[in-house]
């Protein structure tokens, strides 16, 4: 007697189980890709901040020193003049608004965005689209301390990048603090970048 082989298909439960597994794997992959893309954007911002910091350090090296005689006239102290070719700009921002969930194409003409004198002073510019607003502040208007970051102090310098990567209105802020010796004109930046809401 011949046995008849029965062709059996998949049950509905088996098919649903496979669909659920594929859905979970797809969700994990999407999450991983989003995190990777956000990390790449943050890495780009950190690299740009490092370039700005190096430009500021070089500026302090080439900035002229002026001798200031006290009223008694017996001794002199040396003070640094910040960015003399720009009239002493103390805060520089570009672009003027924080890009939200999309890249911003800088307009580097007519003194706008990175064509401002204060950016030329530190020899920094971006011509490619960017997700971040970049800024540096000298002795004022620091972004990091109110968020729990380091305070550069009254003679300090702060480089910052601010972005809204996912467009929800919550800002991602990265700051790099530096202290400036007004006597020698040298500047020392921290080796750590403070980050608040990294992937926002």
TrEMBL record:
Q: Where is the signal peptide?
A: none
Domain of life, per UniProt, equals Bacteria
Q: Which Pfam families match?
A: N_methyl
Entry keyword set = Membrane, Transmembrane, Transmembrane helix
Under the heading SUPFAM superfamilies, the entry gives: Pili subunits (SSF54523)
InterPro entries for this protein: N_methyl_site, Pilin-like
Q: Which residues cross the membrane?
A: 12-33
Q: How is this protein named in the record?
A: Prepilin-type N-terminal cleavage/methylation domain-containing protein
Organism (species) = Polyangium spumosum
């Amino acid at each position: 007697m011949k046995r008849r082989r029965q062709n059996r298909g998949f049950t509905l439960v088996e098919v649903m189980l496979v669909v659920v597994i594929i859905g979970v794997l797809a969700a994990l992959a999407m999450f991983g890709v989003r995190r990777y893309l956000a990390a790449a954007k943050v890495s780009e911002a950190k690299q740009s901040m490092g370039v700005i910091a190096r430009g500021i350090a070089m500026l302090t090296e080439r900035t002229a020193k002026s001798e200031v005689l006290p009223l008694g006239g017996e001794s002199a102290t040396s003070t640094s003049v910040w960015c003399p070719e720009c009239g002493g700009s103390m805060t520089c921002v570009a672009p003027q608004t924080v890009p939200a969930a999309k890249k911003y194409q800088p307009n580097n003409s007519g003194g706008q965005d990175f064509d401002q004198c204060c950016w030329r002073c530190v020899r920094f510019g971006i011509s490619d689209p960017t997700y971040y607003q970049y800024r540096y502040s000298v002795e004022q208007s620091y972004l990091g301390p109110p968020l729990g970051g380091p305070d550069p102090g009254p003679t300090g310098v702060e480089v910052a990048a601010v972005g809204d990567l996912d467009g929800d209105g919550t800002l991602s802020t990265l700051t790099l603090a530096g202290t400036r010796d007004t006597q020698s004109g040298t500047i020392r930046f921290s080796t750590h970048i403070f980050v608040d809401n990294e992937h926002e």
